[in-house]
Structures
1.
Amino acid sequence: MIPCAMLRMPAHLTAQALPFASRGPRTSITLSEVFPAHGAEAAAAGFVLSQISMRAGPLLWIQDRLARRETGRPFLAGQASGRKPLMLMQLSRPIDVMAAVEEGLRCKALAAVVAEIQGDPAAVSFTAMKRLALRAEMDGVPCWLIRQGASVDLSAARDRWRIAPLPSAANPDDPRAPGSPRWRVELFRSRGGRPGEWVAQYERAQGDGAEDRLDLVAAVPDGTLAEHAAAGGKHAAR
Amino acid sequence: MERWQNMQQRAGNTLPDDLPLALVGDGAQGAVIHAVNRAAHLAGVCVGARLTDMRALCPTLKVDFADPQGDLAALRRLALWARRWCPWTVADDWGADGMVAHGVILDTTGADHLWGGEAAMLADMEGTLSALGHEARLALAPTWGAAWALARFGPVRAICADSAALPVAALRLDGETVLLLKRLGLRRIGQLADLPRLSLARRFSRAGPAQNPLIRLDQLTGHLAEPVSPPDAPPVFRVHARLAEPIFDPTHHLPGLCAALCDQLAKMHQGARRLCLTVYRTDGTVSRIEAACARPSRDPAHLAFLFRDRLERINPGFGFDLISLEALVAEALGVGQVDLAGGAESGVEISHLVDRLTARFGRAALARIQPVASHIPERAEVLAAPMAGLPDQVHSMADRPQRLLDHPEEVRVLYALPEGPPAQFQWRRRSYLVARYQGPERIAPEWWQDRPGTRLRDYFKVEDEAGHRFWLYREGVPGDGRGGAPRWFLHGVFA
């Protein structure tokens, strides 16, 4: 897993505060939706894992059959060192996935429940999402829905994210090789925080004792400025 | 016979009682009578005789074929159903000369007082069985042999009656031995018992139990043990709900049953691992559903929850009047510590979740991923049981993708460098231009379990201009002598 990702804020960007930084921990445990762009399903999974806080306990990961066939399954060796135990559940129907998510949210010992659903099935309705949101907030278990290939319609999710891949950062060892992954992350609907758009860079831990971390830099239209901001953000984080 | 009559009645062609009727099966010299009804019995038709002889005796005899296999299956179902009286029952299908004498043996030790004494229990059994349409001859005796003899040759509802006056056929001997004893002048069991043991033992020294009167006599008197061993061992923990009238839905009785079972378990410091809910139907059969726990549990709400969604799978037939809940497998479970906030430890909650999910979606749906020491990516992890512990595994620092496809998918390479990744490839009808790459990382086949001729893999991490990162591999190298030109596959996706 990527459980130990730290969310660090560059010092000069604190004015544009991140939504979760301004909110208390009570409201951050809720139902969130992630809409990955085409080809960004793995990025969405990585982003969700980085957002799940350091709660103890295993992680329940539920996939429907289509999502598994299209985008594969989570690969244990690809996750970060301080990973949580992963309980993987594969179901064929989206309605079963929703039922299993609700069942999983009853269990307070779980770190989080993550579900991947492909397309726009009728089971993922506004009412069903509302149930999940209320259940997640009542029992205090974070719930993430990864909606692959779905259209952004009416939803009861408290936070709604959009994620797209970006060319990775420069590799310090080899200029021809891809470096740390970067994504364009957009929070386009949020109940507790302010929507915004960021460039996220995920860095794996180098050596023992270090933690994986996620740097978020506000997306700036100007490319050179964005690169400068990214460099500054990384510097500030270290 | 009565099963046949019930079937005919259900099919809608009930025959008058005064019509002589017989069921026949195949014998050595033609058809042999297996069962007769009361009118045929009065007309002189006897079981075991040949059909042609009996036709001569009673020309109006109506004949149908017997179904011995069906009878045996029905008897086994009835033996299970008879556990409403006591937990230790077995179907008895001993027979001589091809004629099976069907019976059910119940070990009622310690169960009779629940029914108000032995006589009251026998009366209850006879009433319940006659409500099913079965005529029953009941007897109670200290041994299997004595009960068998009394039920068939003794007085009605005999309880521990003296068996000395019964004929020797009551000893479960085959026809030849009975005939031999009759020729020797031994007609009663009492006469046989008075003989010196030594002469009997000498005469029947090599005979099996069915030909040996001495063994049968010892079994009858209890000198030779003949235990009642049912096909499945009865459970230790078991609770019942007896209903005044047959019902169809056990939902309202389930919480009470679970609470009673958990009380029993708590007294013995045990927790249930496998549970079985059985309903005893009014048509003489049982139907059951099972549930299992990942950890021993004696939480009534949790146990009731495991059955909640599955009660509709139980087949109530025409209703049932007895529900029993059994813990088939129980394990030791100490008293749980409740923390100051009032919550139990987290392992219990996880195991309850696993139970609920597996009870609802099946055992195959849920698994815990365990790492395995292997360099081949698809072998580097296995799906283990959901509650399996996490082994200590040194995490490899190699760059691995976040997502792995179940089966590597072949990609069309438009142009490949001789020693490097493709410049462009097509995957799922979309083409990607490789902008940056890392590799190759060579993973050799595991010769100790791969087939000979398996090609090595060269893995590349490639990135296209839009930022999609993939894990490609080339299977084999040109000129390795293991097939034609190497093919390219996409195996995983990086975050």
2.
Amino acid sequence: MRLALPQPHEDLGHTADVGVRVRGATAEEALARLVLAFAALASGGAGVAAEREERVAVAGGPDLAGTAVALLRELLYRLATEGLVPAACEILSADAAGAEATIAFGRRDPELHAEGADLKAVTWHAARLEREGDGWVAQAVFDV
Amino acid sequence: MQLRRIEGDLWEIPREGRMRVPGRVYSVGPPVPDDPALQQVANVAHLPGILRFSLAMPDIHWGYGFPIGGVAAMDADHGAVSPGGVGYDINCGVRVLTTTLEEEVVRAKLHAITAQLFRDVPTGVGASRAIPRLSDGELDEVLAGGARWAARRGFAAAGDDAERCEEGGRLRGADPSAVSERARARGADQLGTLGSGNHFLEVDRIAEVYDAGVAEAFGLVPGQVALQIHSGSRGLGYQVCDEFIAAIARSRGEFGEDYANLPDPQLAAAPIASALGQRYLGAMQAAANFAWANRQVMTGLAVRALLHTLGISERDLGARVLYDVCHNVAKLEEHEVDGARRRVLVHRKGATRAFGPGDARVPAPYRAVGQPVLIPGDMGRYSYVLAGTARAMTDTFGSSCHGAGRLLSRGEALRRGRGRAIARELAARGIEVISRGKKTLAEEMSEAYKDVAQVVAVMDGAGISRLVARLEPMGVIKG
């Protein structure tokens, strides 16, 4: 399922950093929403115009949460070095070994996205990608 | 969580389960038992080789893995190193420069000075290009040379800037070859930039001196002006930490059960003596040197901005580095443990070294009184300079607090700041603030932080560091 900005996410209320929680019917949907929650933090909630689409694959582990962290780490590196922000995302596969996604990227605009957070890193603290009730939950805490 | 009072503001989390040592928490008022930061203190106590206590300073708050304000000393031969116990912003730290400028002189041109600093020191998300982009060879020199590299290139307040930094402004164990291409790509053009969030450059007045003798040794004169710089290793350090946490998380099964079953994946740790542990220490120390070079370049930029705006000579400015401390770091140090000198790796995650009088590792000008301990507060109130003590050496592996500590999440601060004009409120109190990010001022407003006066009072009361002087902001630039 391809999802595009904006998507709902909860603020974990972390004191020093920024944490987000999302939900989905499947692991793939929850992970796609987590990617877009990351994009919403980076863009300050402003729109992101997609410029190009790319297939992104990462090695994950040691568990599903580690795979979620691995995908976000890769996207944060691209944000930091190339200014790329996901505008839409489809998770093609996600398991403890890794994830593969098709991501439409736009560019961070210093003016439009001035309220975006300066995300230093994706932490492993409280990272989740797991079943909860009838669905899936994903969350991550970012160092800011 | 059960806590018991040891004495005064010091509380203990008793050892239970797989904790190797108890937790010890210095606290402003009684600790709140369901504070997640306290669980993090207990979690750190699970790390292999931890000695005596998992410590927390009174600016403790919820971090990731380690609490912010956490201190953990590991046996250097048999203990663990945890990159999360240093943090992503390796050698995030604070530098204070004194000047011989009187407050009135600066206040008369405060807007021009603050604006010039804001123009000359790049701030904000992904700030870059303070100086021409470094070649790979030059970056290697920065990673090995730290503050000395930048001082040699003319970014300096005086001739002895580096000598007046913790560790002389560079860690000798740095291994530039352990810093990846990705880390280099992320940080190479960020040398000399402030960053965002809680990083700042302040023009302060020395508002009050509490210990005249020590203040004199530190060069702190009431009514004179000081500069304060808070920043770290920028994208290069973030990437170093990120990569090693991931590498250690993937390898955790190789180091045995004690390493595989830590209570938080962010505590991912490797034996100090392992190849991976050694490689991390080499990379981390290189990133620490990058941070010292970063603050040194900003020192040069800030000094030039003051000279330009005030139209005075270097001699009239009288700028010199008081001291420069790192508060996110792990360092190999010798400490007395159970009556014997031992080599230990002290993780300080949001904590400041606070070595006492007579210690040979304190720069000669301060050796008789203890090292300067620089504790920034928030942009609307005050910051403090303290001095290290003998008590810190016996009780906290020579460590003190590092700042005020956040009270509100950033989201909550934004909600409470809605509809307020923070810059105008501060201007009405004589504080000129310029910020790059629109949200920054609300996220960083005074109410988002604990009162640093209460935090340093706990350290002073416990004898961990002694109050010397209070600085108050006049001009502030933020990311």
